[in-house]
Amino acid sequence: MNGASPTPSALYKRPVNGHHNPVNGNHESANGVEIGKKVGKTASFLQWTADDVFNVFRYHWIPCIFGVGLLFFMGVEYTLRMVPASSPPFDVGFVATRSFHRLLTEWPELNTLLAALNTVFVGMQTTYILWTWLMEGRPRATISALFMFTCRGVLGYSTQLPLPQGFLGSGVDFPVGNVSFFLFYSGHVAGSVIASLDMRRMQRWELAWTFDVLNVLQVVRLLGTRGHYTIDLGVGVGAGILFDSLAGKYLESSRRNSAAFANGSPKEAFLSNSKG
After folding, report:
1. Long-range contacts (CB closer than 8 Å, 24 or more residues apart) made by 161-167
2. Sorted alphabetically, which keywords does the UniProt record give (predicted)?
3. Structure confidence by residue, pLDDT tens digits, 164-194
């Protein structure tokens, strides 16, 4: 490695004076060459040195922060008084938007306006996701949305959460007409994330940032109207990222298996230029 410092993302490939690597479980010589997966039956941590421990914190500070977070929330979880079954759920997002909720309750015209604007934003998401497939020949975002909404339907039906107290519906909100809907998880948020990720792949940075800002405003409105719990919105972000990744893996797998089809076939046309 000629003395070059490792990048923080590397999984601790830096040799540490020929000592055991505490992250990947290998034993390395002074020049960084792996000389064995395990050394006898000695427990891995018994081979650590002070330098090993220091370098874990130095080069892998992000997992260390999450480790501290794990310990902190273990303490919170085991000492927290649980919400009684007769009480409404506790939601930190509802607490943070209490004033906004009061404003929307007292000013229903504002609630209707924001609902209409949010419906326009959902239409923008849908239009962009379909456009990438039908007009640009890049189906990844569309496949992501199909995966995401189907999984949302399964989970939403499996555990049907009670409608939050103080819900402020609107006839111009999406779904239009105050129809029933699944709370877990937020398809509004997940769809916006899927679109934003596709925009970043295509280096449409300004459009991506615009969608991100609108998504944040959407989250505030959904909390203020009690249209979703905070957990619905947080998982919506994760779902968008997850299903975008799964759609990419699906397309990559399909491309590898498409050699048996002649050029110009429907499958080839579907998969063409699908890296986006």
Report:
1. 161/229, 162/89, 164/88, 164/89, 164/91, 164/94, 164/226, 164/227, 164/229, 165/88, 165/226, 166/101, 166/105, 166/226, 167/225, 167/226, 167/227
2. Membrane, Transmembrane, Transmembrane helix
3. 999 998 888 887 666 788 999 999 999 999 9
pLDDT tens profile 232-266: 999 999 999 999 999 999 999 888 877 545 454 55
Residue 143 placed within a domain = yes
In this prediction, residue 32 has a pLDDT band, given cuts at 50, 70 and 90, of very low
Report residue 203 as tokens: 């280096």
Q: Considering Cα of 90, then 92, then 96, then 100, what sign does the dihedral take?
A: negative
Helix ranges (H only) for 91-179 are: 92-96, 98-106, 108-134, 140-158
Whether residue 169 is found in the same domain as residue 70: no
- Distance, in Å, from the CA atom of 91 to the CA atom of 164, rounded to the nearest integer, reads 10
DSSP reduced 3-state for 109? helix
Is the pLDDT higher at 20 or at 153?
A: 153
Q: How many domains does the chain have?
A: 2
Residue 141: domain span: 92-261
Catalytic residue numbers read 188, 228, 232
Question: Quick one: tokens of 179?
Answer: 């129809």
Coil, helix or strand for 36?
A: strand
**What's the full length of the chain, in residues?**
276
The answer for residues whose C-beta is within 8 angstroms of residue 11's C-beta and 6 or more apart is 23, 24
pTM of the model: 0.76
**Is residue 195 over pLDDT 70?**
yes
Q: Are residues 57 and 145 in the same domain?
A: no
